[in-house]
């Protein structure tokens, strides 16, 4: 484990933590001293591998399987985490799915499936974790956005809408939860170097990225880790791009 233990004694729930960015975030929070609840919907073997990697490095982690689009499943998962570890201090809303479909060919079922994870899942998880955070006197919520939230993308209307809604939720929650000492921020990865087979960014050119390369999951995880530390308590309601300078205003 890394020398810094700024999250010692904290309990973190990371959704969609079995692979890629979620995996890196779970490991980064554990390196900072947090006990990590590794959530996945179906990829139990991958989730168990992440938890084992954390434990083998001296950290604390357990797997909690749940479909975050199912409110009852989320309530049961968070209740189990609180029963086992006493609280939830940190919530990282990372779970998502990536699909490419021309809008004219998009079914309502596909539209609803993506939005149910991005928006309904974020609603259920936040509602379930808030009582614990408030009781503990504060906490951190980090949402994982994307560049298409503001720029849009062909064949990803549902993805753009979901991430844009998540950014709106982030800002609104930051204003509402500040009085409880809960900071809420959004981290938006740019083109990523991940193992995701259907990742569009793996096929996209990097010529429009000033840094000249794709970001790694660990670089995104480092920002998420920082936003959950005591040093970042006054950072809230912010959208932080990890994109090598591609998105500038």
CATH topology: Rossmann fold
Strand order of the largest sheet: 3-2-1-4-5-6-7
Residue stretches low in confidence (pLDDT < 50, at least 5 long) are: none
CATH class: Alpha Beta
- The residue-averaged pLDDT reads 91
Q: Biggest sheet, open or closed, and with what strands and sense?
A: 7 strands, parallel
- CATH architectural arrangement: 3-Layer(aba) Sandwich
Q: Portion of residues in helices? A: 40-55%
- CATH H level, superfamily name: NAD(P)-binding Rossmann-like Domain
N-to-C order of helices and strands: EHEHEHEHEHHEHE
The best one-word shape is: globular
Structural class: alpha/beta
Radius of gyration: 17 Å
Q: Using DSSP, what is the number of strands?
A: 7
Q: Give me the number of helical elements.
A: 7
Strand content: 15-25%
Total domain units:
1
Determine the N-to-C terminus distance: 37 Å
């Amino acid at each position: 484990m890394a020398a810094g233990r700024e999250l010692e004694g904290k309990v973190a729930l990371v959704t969609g933590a079995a692979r890629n960015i979620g995996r890196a975030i779970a490991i980064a929070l554990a390196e900072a001293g947090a006990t990590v609840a590794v959530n996945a919907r179906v990829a139990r073997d991958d989730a168990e591998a992440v938890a084992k990697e954390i434990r083998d490095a001296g950290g604390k982690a357990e797997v909690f399987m749940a479909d975050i689009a199912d409110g009852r499943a989320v309530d049961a998962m968070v209740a189990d985490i609180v029963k086992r570890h006493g609280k939830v201090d940190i919530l990282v809303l990372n779970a998502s799915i990536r699909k490419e479909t021309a809008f004219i060919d998009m079914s309502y079922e596909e539209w609803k499936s993506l939005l149910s994870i991005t928006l309904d899942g974020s609603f259920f998880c936040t509602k379930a974790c808030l009582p614990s955070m408030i009781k503990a006197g504060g906490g951190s919520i980090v949402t994982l956005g994307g560049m298409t939230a503001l720029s849009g993308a062909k064949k990803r209307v549902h993805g753009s809408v979901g991430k844009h809604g998540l950014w709106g939720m982030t800002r609104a929650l930051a204003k509402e939860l500040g009085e409880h000492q809960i900071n809420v921020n959004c981290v938006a990865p740019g083109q990523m170097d991940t193992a995701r087979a259907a990742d569009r960014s793996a096929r996209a050119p990097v010529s429009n990225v000033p840094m000249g390369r794709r970001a790694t999951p660990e670089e995104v995880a480092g920002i998420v880790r920082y936003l959950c530390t005591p040093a970042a308590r006054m950072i809230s309601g912010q959208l932080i791009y990890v994109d090598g300078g591609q998105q500038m205003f």
